[in-house]
Design goal:
Length: 238
């Protein structure tokens, strides 16, 4: 059932990983294995705590410091190939995301976008894999194609500009501190998805950087955006 009144936003800008698709455990398992091949051993939990919400291309200095090896373009290309193969085999949609995307797409006349810090090939592969691609046709934005990646606001500013919407009239849906900072820096109202687990920043961490509301059920997002957060069963409180 859709919210009973219009949204107080002109557009909704979604992050991808952890918000629309449950990709972080898959991506970080591949990354953990490849870093171990370079000599940096860690558990999957440690890898996720270090890299969730960040683009590997932006963490080259840290990886080189731990491994003592220079990361080449060939290594990065190999990582993306192995990552994409694993995603294509195993990726699942975030529960409730199809409902939220469908309802918001309808309410806003299509003024929704996916603004990710990941490379475009990954984002398009993932949205197609889980059946969400039709809702984001020509409205996918990659931090790899902007001057700066998250936590800078560039990818959200690009998405708002393409939709012809003032970023201050946009709602941004994020699940990590890095992404939330990007949305806030863009001037948008940021809503934090934090259902628990290492794939997402904690509710407390998201609130600490200034998100407007934290929620735990993606299917309830239209209600949260419409100001019904107090009525959402399971709304995050810690």
């Amino acid at each position: 059932m859709s919210p009973s009144h219009s949204l107080p936003f002109d557009a909704v800008l979604f992050d991808c990983d952890g918000v629309l698709v449950d990709s972080e455990p898959i991506t970080n398992r591949v990354l953990r294995d490849m870093l171990e091949e370079l000599g940096w051993s860690m558990t999957l939990d440690e890898c996720m705590a270090t890299f969730v919400g960040k683009a590997v291309k932006d963490e080259v200095a840290q990886i080189e410091a731990h491994t003592g090896q220079r990361l080449t373009d060939a290594w990065l290309a190999s990582f993306r190939t192995r990552r994409n193969e694993a995603l294509d085999r195993e990726l699942q949609v975030v529960p409730g995301a199809p409902t939220a995307v469908r309802e918001l797409h309808e309410q806003l006349g299509g003024r929704i976008a996916c603004a990710s810090g990941a490379d475009r090939i990954k984002v398009e592969l993932q949205l197609a894999k889980v059946g969400l691609a039709p809702y984001f046709q020509n409205r996918i934005f990659s931090g790899h194609e902007t001057p700066r990646s998250k936590p800078f606001p560039d990818v959200y500013l690009a998405a708002a500009r393409a939709l012809g919407v003032d970023p201050r009239r946009c709602a941004v849906v994020e699940d990590t501190v890095t992404g939330a900072r990007a949305g806030i820096a863009a001037g948008a109202s940021v809503f934090g998805y934090s259902p628990g687990g290492l794939s997402h920043s904690s509710a407390a961490a998201l609130r600490a950087v200034g998100v407007r509301e934290v929620f735990v059920d993606m299917a309830q997002l239209p209600y949260v955006l419409g100001g019904h957060a107090s009525h959402v069963v399971g709304a995050a409180s810690a």
